[in-house]
Predict the 3D structure of the following.
Amino acid sequence: MSASRHRCPNCRRELDWDTTNRWRPFCSERCKLIDLGAWFKEEHAIPGEPAVEPVIDESNGEPPRRH
C-alpha cells in the first residue's frame, strides 16, 4: 500500500505522507522552522476572541491575587 501524497504547507512541494518523514507535515526542518517563526511573529493565528491580558499591579509588578 502506498502512502498518500500531500503538499508541504510552507513550500508546497509534493511528498508522501510517510511515518519515516520526521518533519511531517513539512518536507524538511527548514520548512518546519520557517513555519514556527511565522507563529512567533504572529503571522499565523487561531481564529477567536483575543485573550484578555492580565492586569499588573504597578506597585509590585505582579498580577492581582484572587481570593
Remarks:
- The first strand starts at residue 5 and ends at 7.
